[in-house]
Amino acid sequence: MKLDWVDKLSKVVEVKGGISSGDVNTKVEVYPATYEEFAEVVRLCAEEKLKAYVHGFNAHHIGKNVFADVGISTLRLNKVIEISEEDLYVKVQAGASFRELKEELKAHSLTVPFNYGGSVGGFASTNLPSVFTSLGYPKDWLLGAIVVTGLGEVVKSGSTTTKFSSGYKIWKVLSGSLGWLGAYAELNVRLLPYFEYHFEEVKDHERAFKDRALGVIGVKVGGEVKKFAVKKGDGEKLEIPEVFDFSILTIRGKEFEEIEGVNADFCVAYYGLGIVRCLGGTPPKGKKLVKERGCEGDCFNANYTSLKLLKKSLDPEGVFFDVI
Amino acid sequence: MIEELRKIVGDKWVITGEERKLYSFDGFTAVSGEPSVVVLPGNEEEAVEVLRYLFSRKAKVVIRGSGTSLSGATVPLQGEVVVAMTRLNKVYSVEGYEIEVGPGIANAMVTKSAPKDLFYAPDPSSYVVSSIGGNVSHDSGGMRVVKYGPTFNSVLSLKVILTNGEVEEFTPSPFFNPTSIFVGSEGTLGAILRARLKLVPKPKARKTIVGVFQTVGDASRAVVGIFKAGVVPSALEMMDKTSVSIVERSRYKAGLPLAHVLLIELDEDLEESIARVVKVIRDNDGEFFEPEDDAPYWNARKGAFPAMGVVSRAYLTLDCNVPRAKLPLILSKVEEMSRNKGVTIANVFHAGDGNLHPLIPFDPDDKASLRKAIEVGSEITELAISLGGVPSGEHGIGLEKVKFLERYYNATDLEVMERIRKAFDPHGLLNPCKSFLKEKCQPKDEVFRWLWEWD
Amino acid sequence: MGVGLELDKLELDKCVHCGFCLEVCPTYVITRSEVHSPRGRILAVRLGVKSEGLETCVFCRRCEAACPSGVEYGKAISSYRRADATKKLAHRILENPGLLYASLKVYSRSSSPIALRIKEFVKSYQPPLQYKDENAELLLFPGCLNSVVYRSTVEKATNYLRRFYKVEVYNGCCGLPHYAEGEKERALKIAEKLREAFKGKVVVSLSSNCTAHMREMGLDVFDFAEFVVKKNLPLPQREITVTVHDPCHASLVGLNKYTREMLKRMGAKIVEMEDPSFECGAGGTYFIFNPELSRRIAEEKGRKVKATGVENIISTNQACSLALSLHGKVFHVADLL
């Protein structure tokens, strides 16, 4: 089927066939190579009343299944622009592979203290927890960004400095919003000196956390929960899957109470981050839940007027697909 | 209106007479305004009722806490109603690594209310008095940002009231959490009613090294060197010679040598880190000592701003932020400016973040001296922006820095921020004339002209 | 404006409005209103605004210790406070402990609000102790309230000091209430009178805020515990667990360390309360004229005391002792002798 808007798109950007991966379905995929192309695509979508869905490797979809007209792939925007050893930040485009970025940083004895198997944009947009639980969420490590709004504006938000009190934190509110409020084109991410790490099984998770391990997690397979501290120094590592079916949100420090009671095939408690993520089984009732996959309706427990106001300001035409 | 407010909070908590002038300015003393009335709600319910009433009457409002803003964020410029949230200072819950507090609680009280082995990391110098509502609204910094991040990283969720009267309580979720947009929004999007904050395990031990340098250049090169050596200190502060000499004349005197001083706090891998830091200090022609009792030095640092009162009755405190790598350059330029313009500029600042705090004294009875201070400040801030920095690292834009937004942002950036502000506050009721504006207000006198307009 | 006032205004102009004084001020902590804060009071004076806050100051001067700019708040603000007739009368009574005793007797039969308020605090009283050794070399200055309300403390201290010195008890007032509550001129006159009386004598004061005030007026006075510690006088051992209140002015001139040292030498166990120098709620005659604020400050103090779980409270200042008696058993260090 030849559609008029596809022609229009092809004039500004490389267009390929859509994807249908079950949870993400698009009619066409476009590959902007510059921020201007990215913005132009979004403007066109707004004009043509098309729904767009921005993604990198499409490896960590969360929320409602997507049926969008245009899939905007960031994979052509994949350059590492600047690595600052003095100021401990990296300026990098959204489509760069997070793993490759970490490899490159390692050569400078630097690192972003997270594990994530997708793009840098996905790392920022999904804001998923990692095993270094005492270091917070990705959102805390984003210093600034170049953002594309739903009106196709290319906007600077934040900076490269650790402190920033000079404007609304648009780049921060986009983190964890899965591309619904706007898309990252470029990110400034805070770095740490490179470190090796390993996992150690522990009995007392609280003690390990208070002794300031890099992180503490609980892994539940079948009925049994094992506790691990993540510590500095090379050694044995645990492979933690990155895709889950649902999450339970809880008070930070109460994750092990939650993981005990949950009925699932496999769960990880991220101690100190207030989240337990699970595969299989049934989400418990009466808890604050995030339905990560196969969800319909309210997936995130986030029916806020404030979010609607943000959507109205950042994507008034509703170009970005409603994953929420 | 006053009658209605009295009905909600009680007579004595509505200040209408001359006494309302006591709320006419904050820590930024170069200008003052005048509130039409001041209201001090006694609890969350009263605050909600007061604000709903004011919003329904389309009254312009300034929300404030302890009034320590250094950017004039709480100065009522248009006869606004000042709603002081200081009485909302409750601790609602302490559980796990979370504490939920009212916006009026002083920063220092958060750690005091926490379990003994945990602490609240953000520590702006005014932490003994500045309130959490203001800390959140400015994304306040402090000494420990260099390791623990700014206030943002410690705010898990908020309860807010919007200008349509709706009260929203956000879940502390990593997904779709609007808390992020309220942090640092300077009271322009809604009023904070509660904050859920993160508590961090205290380190087993902390160690302070005092680095002593003969030139600002050596000191600032050492700052960069420390990070390049793979050390992330838990605090890294600089006091230049001028500020050392001032502090040593104040109540906060610590017996610091009259030189450019770095205060370096480490709280991890102590042995290894100390060795690396010491090497960096030596490599940059510095000397050092490791005080047994480091409290006097940190008190000297924390009291350094107001200690300016010893030499001047008033001063501007800038807080532009540059990349650390640019510290040697900008500090030498500031020294040059100070010489050329004949203005004493004391630098006492968060070197580890590249967050400058040039303190520029002026005589409050002499407009010409204020004008000069504003001009010098403006030049420094512009320079910082041109070096890849930002106009404000932690004090916020307030009324002080509105003109620098057009240097830092382009028209589109400002347009998008304007849309956010308008969406949340369509009638322009919250903190008018301040922070992130596309169009500045009309200056009401020459001081505002100096602050808001370019020559 | 007189030269004195002019100077005091200049002193207040040193305030840079940073607000570091807010959370140490008892009336701010209770009201959380700028009106009742040191910063607000200073601004009221500077702007010439008539403010209720000037009268609600407890005059504990903790704000001075917190002020980075070194504003001498107490000295300057005292010039802008005015005593009304009732306060003046109260001051006159305090000047003469004999008259204080007589007045308390009169009040005990009255049911005026002031009398009732006084009775809440003062449960018993006795005529002041008159004692004088021949050729006395040491003046014991009990302080006005001690003289009549805590006579037994005066007796214990006198008996103790008599073992080492020839003692005379000097019943009188140090002038602090006057200074704090709008009669600065009269306070200066009282100080002059004391200077005459103290000439050539070693003076030991039993009331640490009086000690502090007299020191600041340039008088050479020891606080009781300070004297005992500095002279290395022998002390009995006491098996007792206490928490120590630091009277505000004594704190400012650094007297409370001697109280702790004396307790330590006696083998007492000290459990520290939070913010030991936080106002007790008495504030000289403050508790009489600002009952509501005084009550709430006392409640706040009570919370801090109770948190220690200790019943015995050490207070070296009489007015504080009255207010603290709401929260436990109060002792002067001399009571332990």
UniProtKB/TrEMBL annotation, chain A:
Domain named FAD-binding PCMH-type: which ranges? 22-194
Its BP terms in the Gene Ontology are: lactate catabolic process
Q: Which Pfam families match?
A: FAD_binding_4
* Residues spanning the signal sequence: none
The lineage's top-level taxon is: Archaea
One MF term in the entry's GO annotations: D-lactate dehydrogenase (cytochrome) activity
Q: Which InterPro entries match?
A: FAD-bd_PCMH (IPR016166), FAD-bd_PCMH-like_sf (IPR036318), FAD-bd_PCMH_sub2 (IPR016169), Oxid_FAD_bind_N (IPR006094)
Q: Which family does it belong to?
A: Belongs to the FAD-binding oxidoreductase/transferase type 4 family.
Q: What's the protein name?
A: FAD linked oxidase domain-containing protein
Per the UniProt entry, what species is this protein from, by scientific name?
Candidatus Aramenus sulfurataquae
Automatic annotation (TrEMBL), chain B:
Domain of life from the UniProt record: Archaea
Q: Name one GO molecular function term.
A: FAD binding
FAD-binding PCMH-type domain location is 31-202
**Gene3D superfamilies, sorted:** 3.30.465.10, 3.30.70.2740, Vanillyl-alcohol Oxidase, Chain A, domain 4
Pfam families referenced in this protein's UniProt entry, alphabetically: FAD-oxidase_C (PF02913), FAD_binding_4 (PF01565)
Q: Does the keyword Mitochondrion apply?
A: no
Q: Which cofactor does it need?
A: FAD
Show the InterPro entries listed in the entry. FAD-bd_oxidored_4_C (IPR004113), FAD-bd_PCMH (IPR016166), FAD-bd_PCMH-like_sf (IPR036318), FAD-bd_PCMH_sub2 (IPR016169), FAD-linked_Oxase-like_C (IPR016164), FAD-linked_OxidoTrans_Type4 (IPR051914), Oxid_FAD_bind_N (IPR006094), Vanillyl_alc_oxidase_C-sub2 (IPR016171)
Keyword set, alphabetical order = FAD, Flavoprotein, Oxidoreductase
Q: Does the keyword Flavoprotein apply?
A: yes
Q: Where are the transmembrane segments?
A: none
Q: What SUPFAM superfamilies is this protein classified in?
A: FAD-binding/transporter-associated domain-like, FAD-linked oxidases, C-terminal domain
Name the record gives this protein? FAD linked oxidase domain-containing protein
Q: State the organism named in the record.
A: Candidatus Aramenus sulfurataquae
From TrEMBL, chain C:
Gene3D superfamilies attached here? Alpha-helical ferredoxin
Report the residue ranges that make up the 4Fe-4S ferredoxin-type domain in this protein. 6-35, 48-77
Alphabetized Pfam families for the sequence: CCG, Fer4_8
Origin: domain of life: Archaea
Q: Which keywords annotate this record?
A: 4Fe-4S, Iron, Iron-sulfur, Metal-binding, Repeat
Q: Which GO terms describe its molecular function?
A: 4 iron, 4 sulfur cluster binding; metal ion binding; oxidoreductase activity
The answer to whether the entry has keyword Repeat is yes
State the PANTHER family in the record: GLYCOLATE OXIDASE IRON-SULFUR SUBUNIT
Question: What is this protein's record name?
Answer: (Fe-S)-binding protein
Give the originating organism: Candidatus Aramenus sulfurataquae
